[in-house]
Amino acid sequence: MTVKTKGRPRGFDADEALDRAIEVFWEHGYEGASLTDLTSAMGINRPSMYAAYGNKEELFRRAVARYAEHDMAYAREALAEPTAYQVIERFLRANADALTRADRPAGCLSIQGGLAGGSDNGEVAQFLAASRLGGERALSGRLARAVEEGDLPAGTDPAALARYVMTVSEGNAVHAAAGVDRASLHATVDLAMRAVPRSPEAP
């Protein structure tokens, strides 16, 4: 999409510029990403950035929303798997791959973006935590259905299981950002899957 104002194009692709901003926030975190870093990567000046995206915080929120829509599409797709075990495995495997993509910074924007905080009174960290919690709740809801259907053993706590899965995912994200390779992340997933309960009737 090309951003327009009063019928006149601004001369840059808003989505492409947003993708470049994502990488800056991803590499430097919200606090560490300066306006100079952002506008330079996006190929625009500050007035154009403010006009198209609002202030830095709004730009970051839009970057996270785009990241969730595109880079984390695999999380939504995993929920469609027929069994809880397959849901969890597909999510964690795809996550390990996403954390180590050659065309993206290592790790995860939702973790890296809020590692350094301060001047915003923690609002960005809270925003990112709420975003991650939304994904955890969606997974918990899917696992609750699995309990009802007998796919997970009776008595399984879907919220606790979803929290466990997200803890593995977030831990892998931290390790990926520190340089741990894809094979090692998948080895962690191998171990994590052993803890996933399975109904005796499950395939």
UniProtKB/TrEMBL annotation:
Residues 11-71 form the HTH tetR-type domain. InterPro entries: Homeodomain-like_sf, HTH_TetR, Tet_transcr_reg_TetR-rel_C_sf, TetR_C. It comes from the Bacteria. Keywords: DNA-binding, Transcription, Transcription regulation. Residues 34-53 bind DNA. One of its GO terms (molecular function) is DNA binding. The keyword Heme does not apply. This is DNA-binding transcriptional regulator, AcrR family. The lineage of its organism: Bacteria, Bacillati, Actinomycetota, Actinomycetes, Micromonosporales.
